[in-house]
Amino acid sequence: MNLTDGLLSHAARRLIVSRTLVKYLVLKEIKVKSRGTYFGVAWTLMNPLFTIIVYFVVFRHVFRVGIPNFLSFFIMGFLMWTFFARAITAAARCVADNENLVKQAVFPLEVLPISAVLYHLFHHAVALGLALPLVLAFWGGKLTLNLLWVGVVLAGFVCFTMAVALWLATVGVFFRDTQDILEVGLPMLFWATPVFYSVGMAPEYLRPILAANPLSSFLGAVRTALLEGRMPSGAQLGLATAWVAVMLVFGAWVFARYGPRFAEEL
Fold this sequence. Notes:
Radius of gyration: 19 Å
Structural class: mainly alpha
Number of domains: 1
Number of strands: 0
Order of helices and strands: HHHHHHHHHHHH
């Protein structure tokens, strides 16, 4: 336990010291991806926007999903899913893509997966900044004090995503098939996540499985606060908190434990 505590505290101290480097890497990535384009950051928003339109038309007007305020319900779930999927996919290859930096003895490895998550968080924040006012003004959102829970839950969701990113960044170094597995596994996880349906719509025998999905509690808590104007349930908050705590400890420990071996594996 002392060894584990020492690894985690050392990694945390290095990350705090390297916060300026994290900021630089995120800003550099934003500038590089936007360079030479006419619309810049807007391109990142167009893909989820068109996907939202297609899914909305199909599930609202073809399959006629009977969820109140379905557009808002779907938008919040899909934006959170898009952030999560893009962030962990980038994190899985971030170490291998920066081999020259990894082999520098003084380079703090933690900044690579953290920067990958924060880069996608920037785009997620832009999308939310556009979507939330529309949801509140036109699409059934409730402007109450419980709206503050949206920020709390989203902060926990970012921490959970960072924890998964640390774990996948480590796995991606030692198991090069990680990227291929994600290409297959993420679409399966998407359909197993209540993005465009509620857990209550599933058959009784599937509900425990869907509820056990770590993403379900985060999506449910955000929708409860935003669309119902209520505080998320104790079960939603408890599950979300448990997932954040467990994954942060596990992800940070795995990265700190195996990080020193990255250079020799690449």
